[in-house]
Specification:
InterPro entries: UreF, UreF_sf
Function: Required for maturation of urease via the functional incorporation of the urease nickel metallocenter.
Number of domains: 1
Family: Belongs to the UreF family.
CATH architecture: Orthogonal Bundle
Number of strands: 0
Structural class: mainly alpha
Largest sheet: none
Helix content: over 70%
Distance between the termini: 52 Å
Shape: globular
GO molecular function: nickel cation binding
Main location: cytoplasm
Radius of gyration: 18 Å
Strand content: under 5%
């Protein structure tokens, strides 16, 4: 009975931490970014349910799976192995591959906010805060900082990355609801489509286990993100 209880508690702890990191309530500012979606809406490329769905699914597979999710998967393993050289290299890769100033500022701001979150948690965030501090990242980026928080939990790499991918999807759907605008029912249908796509995207991200296999090349997203910097009317910071 004792053994079974211990196994259940460990599983619960891993699940709960994954849900915590995926939550829109995590105070890292993800809700204030649309990652180019607002500019795509302004350009008429994603101004209804079908267009937004296509845009976000493409962004998941062509952008997130090949870049940020792949970094997260590698970084979780690096944090758990205490391989700070690898952590720093991954962080630098993120900094140097952001295609616009908005996207870089987003990654930096969210990374710094996660560091502040860990510090504010006191003893509950001490391990994450100490790891990020000892790594001396200048500054910590969101994919690497989020991986650090995930690495301190008990979820597998795949489970943790699925959770982080869902957090991204939920933020993007909420951005679409506000910016198009769309109804809540439409938003739930969009989220359902992304939920179906996330496992395959995460598997692809994990398979990109070397620097040569990762990439950050999304030309249309980069163009729209650059346009967003001077967009006349906007709700989001990217």
């Amino acid at each position: 009975m004792t053994t079974n209880t211990a196994i259940r508690t460990t599983t619960d702890a891993g699940l709960l931490r994954t849900l915590w990191l995926a939550s829109p309530a995590l105070p890292v500012g993800g809700f204030s970014y649309s990652e180019g979606l607002e500019a795509a809406i302004d350009a008429g490329l994603a101004n209804d349910e079908a267009g937004v769905g296509t845009w976000l699914i493409d962004q998941l597979h062509l952008g997130q799976a090949r870049s940020d999710l792949a970094v997260m998967a590698e970084a979780i393993s690096a944090w758990r192995a205490h391989d700070l050289d690898r952590v720093r290299a991954l962080n630098q890769w993120v900094l140097t591959t952001r295609e616009t100033s908005e996207l870089r500022l987003q990654s930096e701001q969210m990374g710094k906010s996660l560091l502040a979150w860990a510090q504010a948690l006191g003893e509950h965030g001490a391990a994450v805060h100490a790891a990020l501090r000892d790594a001396a990242l200048s500054p910590p980026t969101w994919p690497v900082a989020a991986a650090c928080a995930a690495a301190k939990g008990e979820a597998t790499v795949r489970e943790a990355v699925i959770g982080l991918a869902f957090g991204w999807a939920e933020n993007m759907v909420q951005a679409a609801i506000k910016a198009v605008p769309l109804g809540q029912g439409t938003g739930q249908r969009l989220l359902a489509r992304l939920v179906v796509e996330i496992p395959a995207a995460v598997d692809e991200a994990i398979a990109r286990g070397s620097d040569e296999q990762r990439q950050a090349f999304t030309p249309m997203l980069a163009i729209l993100s650059a346009r967003h910097e001077t967009q006349y009317s906007r709700l989001f910071r990217s």
